[in-house]
Write a structure and sequence with these properties.
Chain A is mainly alpha-helical. Chain B is flat, with a radius of gyration of 25 Å. Classes of the chains: A mainly alpha, B mainly alpha. Chain A: It comes from Deinococcus sedimenti.
Chain lengths: ~290, ~325
């Protein structure tokens, strides 16, 4: 996903300027978004410490866009004490664990499927349309049922959510990996044949190394999908921790400031996970470093 | 393993191969249909001896799978489409037979037969939900997100400053779980369908921007130099070199976005609706243990999703020049 790899430092200036512009625009945007609801709240005669709609815009209990002070307040409220299982850091950790476990499951399934897809055209023709179709099945719907089903067989805790995350994430891996396995240079394949290499040797020495860049591109997509999967799974199954559970609870309580803070944590988690995959890629394929 | 797929085998040259395939498919499908009809539905009649039926069902599935494998040989149109169709039929019949054999209660997993009848009895409501979710939310949001994304990509490519300043954020945003955005947007825009359309548009936007920018920059140095030698105007270079080069990337992104769009529409409905949409229906019926309706809604969502994906693929084959 990161296209701006070369000259990392040169890109920092423009990024900063854009960030500053966005920050400067935030305040007026926030006022514009909140002034309507603030006016309505005032008109309804609610107890507020402010007189005009404009002054109230930054002090609403449930703002459309929270003011920076509210955000900071919400951030400290939800992040402390750091070790508490009710605070966000712990819940982010839970979601990250589920996501990584899900990604591992998805990689195993995806690579296995890719091997089958490449090995047998009959298998590809019989299943590929349904693999594509499986991606359109709304996981929100299956998640509670899957949780009940798995619970019957004693599977609880992390695993049901990881399985749901894997369900969303396996497809890009299967597609990317099968493309990667087919991407080996025909010349090299011919050479392997000349050397009378066994299919297993061809896979180990040629096809797998050739597929690695494709695999990692797919993994970067998959890790975001897996994160979405575990959050959705936490929303729709009975959960006691995780970002999704906090999202669902605060959505029900209409605590918009909290929703924004959780969203921020989710963003940081997403970016961190992608960076993790990037680091893994650089570690596994040092030769492809640009 | 590709070595084994030499023309000699793919032509199905073995005499009687077609006959054997047809027989296997007939036995598999017919046998499973017979089993599904003989076994009592869960909750009706005495539960059958599951162990004994299991062996038979698995054998019939294996015979059917053998037939599917035979039908996939060759390059004819039938060999491309039939295997998938028969896989679905076998899977549905096999599920029905297994669920009946094990007498799985409908509150846990309803049999495909029940789902089909639910699809028929609740058709007016479900079709209306599909219209809301698919046309108003997913499709409209997809179009809005794509148009906005392409416009943004053009700006990014045109101005070097934006490429450095904005593109990293686009890449950043595409790694953010959009579900986390859904409740905020639904709270801000309202419970009616436009809020879900906005969620879908935001979901679609970032992959499209990243894909389109990468595509527009993929033109080879050689081609650009060539256009320069021909004294082509920037507009001509753009039209004749950059845009055709970008299309494969854009369509790659659009295909990913098409499946994302439907899912995010459904997830967004989870955070509040005014009583329409497949996501709302699923959520409500899960709470009432009306799992046959839930699965019926899932079937419709899947059909809509496949149609969406096929639509984008069809546009791709029409607009992309054949690679030869």
């Amino acid at each position: 996903m990161t296209t701006a790899r070369p000259s990392r430092m040169a890109g920092l200036g423009p990024m900063l300027i854009v960030a500053l512009i966005a920050a400067a625009l935030y305040w007026p945007l926030m006022l514009a978004a909140n002034v309507g609801p603030a006016g309505r709240t005032l008109a309804s005669g609610a107890e507020l410490d402010c007189k005009t709609a404009l002054a109230c815009a930054s002090q609403l209990r449930n703002p459309v866009m929270p003011a920076p002070a509210q955000l900071a307040q919400g951030f400290t409220r939800l992040s402390t004490p750091v070790t508490s299982p009710l605070a966000l850091p712990y819940n982010v950790g839970v979601t990250a664990g589920e996501t990584l476990l899900g990604l591992l499951l998805a990689t195993v399934t995806g690579v296995g499927l890719a091997l089958l897809l490449v090995a047998s055209r009959a298998f590809e023709r019989a299943t590929l349309p349904w693999l594509v179709a499986s991606q359109t099945v709304p996981v929100v719907a299956i998640a509670p049922m899957l949780a009940v089903l798995l619970g019957q067989y004693g599977v609880q805790g992390f695993l049901p959510k990881a399985i749901i995350a894997a369900y969303i994430a396996f497809f890009p891996i299967a597609v990317g990996m099968s493309r990667g396995l087919r991407s080996a240079d025909p010349l090299h394949l011919d050479l392997m044949r000349t050397y009378h290499a066994s299919p297993a040797q061809t896979y180990r020495l040629l096809r797998f190394p050739a597929s690695l860049p494709h695999l990692f591109t797919a993994l970067k997509v998959a890790v975001t999908s897996a994160l979405v999967g575990s959050i959705v799974a936490e929303i729709s199954t009975i959960s006691f921790s995780g970002l999704g559970k906090m999202l669902a609870e605060n959505s029900r309580a209409s605590d918009t400031v909290a929703l924004w803070v959780i969203m921020g944590y989710g963003a940081v988690l997403g970016v961190t996970l992608v960076a993790l995959v990037n680091a893994l890629e650089r570690w596994v394929t040092p030769w492809s470093r640009r | 393993m590709e070595q084994t797929m030499t023309p000699a085998r793919t032509l199905a040259a073995r005499p009687g191969g077609t006959l054997l395939t047809a027989a296997a498919l007939l036995i598999g499908v017919g046998g499973l249909l017979l089993v599904a009809l003989t076994l009592p539905a869960p909750g009706e009649g005495t539960p059958p001896n599951a162990r004994a039926w299991l062996a038979g069902i698995l054998a019939l599935l294996a015979v059917g799978a053998f037939g599917v494998r035979g039908a996939a040989q060759g390059e004819s149109r039938a060999a491309r489409t039939l295997p998938a169709a028969f896989t679905l039929i076998l899977a549905v019949l096999g599920t029905e037979a297994l669920l009946r054999a094990y007498a799985v209660p409908a509150g846990l997993i309803p049999t495909p037969g029940r789902v089909l009848s639910a699809l028929w009895t609740a058709r007016t409501v479900l079709l209306q939900d599909t219209y809301t979710t698919f046309v108003l939310e997913a499709l409209l949001g997809f179009v809005a997100g794509t148009v906005l994304g392409l416009a943004l990509a053009l700006l990014v490519v045109r101005f070097r400053f934006l490429e450095r300043g904005l593109l990293p954020y686009a890449a950043l945003f595409s790694s953010i779980p959009i579900v986390a955005l859904a409740p905020v947007i639904v709270k801000a825009v309202g419970l009616d369908w436009p809020s879900k359309t906005v969620v879908v548009a935001v979901t679609v936007l970032f992959p499209v921007v990243v894909g389109a920018v990468r595509g527009l920059q993929s033109a080879s140095r050689l081609h650009l130099d060539l256009m320069h030698t021909y004294a082509a105007t920037p507009a001509q270079t753009f039209r004749d070199v950059r845009v055709p080069g970008a299309l494969p990337f854009v369509f790659g992104a659009l295909k990913v976005a098409s499946t994302l769009a439907l899912i995010s529409a459904i997830v967004a409905e989870f955070f509040g609706t005014n009583g329409h949409g497949l996501g709302f229906r699923i959520q409500i019926e899960v709470g009432r243990f009306g799992l046959d309706i839930v699965w019926a809604a899932i079937v419709l969502a899947s059909i809509a999703g496949i149609a969406f994906f096929a639509l984008v693929s069809a546009a791709e084959t029409r607009l992309l020049p054949r690679r030869s």
